[in-house]
Write a structure and sequence with these properties.
single chain; 376 residues; mainly beta; eleven-stranded antiparallel beta sheet; 12% helix; 47% strand; binds zinc ion
């Protein structure tokens, strides 16, 4: 059963607060209540209360409730005061109810519309905009910083006063030997001498064997019971009505389900595996020639039985020392044709980049003459 709850109102004339809803005239200034909105202490419209959260709700006892009309008060058009639905004439000025049209709720509605219209008529005052740097400006500043950094990184550093103190060259021929290997595989390579062939497991296949019944635990949400919560609605006559609502409370229910689970077996698949001997050319030894002048030559090679010449490699380098600074001597590699033009006691310039990229021989202004690789 819905219960009645005491409402309160504030006097708009003298400002007295929390006047009980069953009081028709302000106890401080005596004015009949008119343009007021009823409220419950400690409750905001739309709020919900749980079963055990209602200790501050002021219920009217049954005897009081008997005499309260559930209908809203009517609003006297002549003196703007509120009168009980039971009253045929205005308590304040005596006008007949028939000459008035609005009740409490219509009065509130009109008041709200009036306030909205007034708010709309107010000139719009917008907050002053803070001066901020535009995103485009910030972007340009960052871009400039990046460009400046790369220009600096690409800057070259030319070292002069370098004197060539040594030349080095090395030429190497790798000798390969034809050797026999014993191997096995799923195919027989060309030129191999087969020694054996056996049926062996190549791989396993998963094959469905049968199904097994398996019990699986599952859960679902079911309604356990319903619980009551409350809201309060303004009756428009100094009282409120407590409105009960219900909501379901869920619980987790567990059950088992039988499912068919597939069972697989691993079936071996056989193939012919070949065992064979095969001859392969394999790097075996190096023959090297080197020198510290321009008289380069390839080393003399004497091939043994089952031998042949393999890969040839060559390298040309020079060492420079700083005439004035105490920096350690450095050694660089370069192409043979460039190296042929360099002689001991030559003075030259080497330009290196700040990024650590490959250095090069340059003139004193940093113009490239030949590429280099520094040997650490
Ligand atoms: Zn008052
Ligand atoms: Zn009146």
């Amino acid at each position: 059963m819905s219960k009645l709850v005491m409402g309160y109102w504030d006097c708009p004339v003298c400002g007295t607060k929390e006047i009980r809803g069953d009081v028709a005239n302000c106890p401080a200034c005596g004015r009949a209540r008119g343009d007021v909105q009823f409220y419950m202490k400690g409750y905001t419209e739309g709020e919900t209360r749980e079963e055990d959260e209602r200790s501050d709700v002021e219920y009217l006892d049954e005897e009081q409730a008997k005499y309260v009309s559930k209908n809203p008060d009517w609003y006297c058009s002549f003196c703007n005061s509120l009168n009980s639905d039971n009253a045929k004439f205005c308590n304040n000025c005596g006008s007949s109810r028939e000459d008035s049209e609005s009740n409490y709720f219509q009065m509130l509605q009109k008041k709200k519309e009036r306030e909205a219209a007034e708010a709309a008529a107010q000139p719009q005052v917008s907050a002053p905009q803070a001066k901020r740097r535009s995103p485009m400006t910030v972007f340009l500043i960052i871009l400039l910083a990046i460009v400046a950094f790369f220009v600096w990184m690409n800057g070259n550093k030319t070292s002069g006063d370098l004197t060539v103190t040594g030349l080095q060259w090395i030429r190497n021929i790798n000798i390969e030997e034809n050797k026999m290997f014993s191997e096995s595989g799923w195919t027989l390579p060309e030129g191999a001498e087969q020694t054996d062939a056996r049926n062996e497991i190549h791989h396993y296949d998963s094959v469905l064997d049968h199904y097994e019944s398996v019990e699986v635990q599952r859960s679902r949400q079911v309604v356990d019971h319903y619980e009551t919560y409350y809201t309060y609605s303004d009756n428009g006559n100094g009282t409120f009505t407590e409105v009960p609502h219900e909501r379901p409370v869920y619980t987790t229910e567990y059950y088992t389900e039988t499912v068919q689970q597939p069972i697989y077996v691993q079936v071996p698949r056989y193939q012919t595996k070949y065992y064979y001997n095969i001859w392969r050319w394999t790097p075996s030894r190096d023959v090297t020639a080197s020198g510290e002048d321009h008289n380069t030559s390839w080393p003399e090679v004497e091939l043994g039985e089952n031998e042949r010449e393999g890969k040839r490699t060559e390298a040309y380098a020079f060492t420079v020392e700083h005439n004035k600074s105490k920096e350690a001597p450095a050694t660089y590699r370069l192409a043979e044709s460039d190296w042929m033009n360099i002689n001991v006691n030559d003075n030259l310039y080497i330009t290196s980049k700040r990024t650590g990229a490959q250095p090069f021989i340059s003139d004193e202004k940093g113009n490239k003459i030949a590429d280099l690789v520094q040997i650490k």
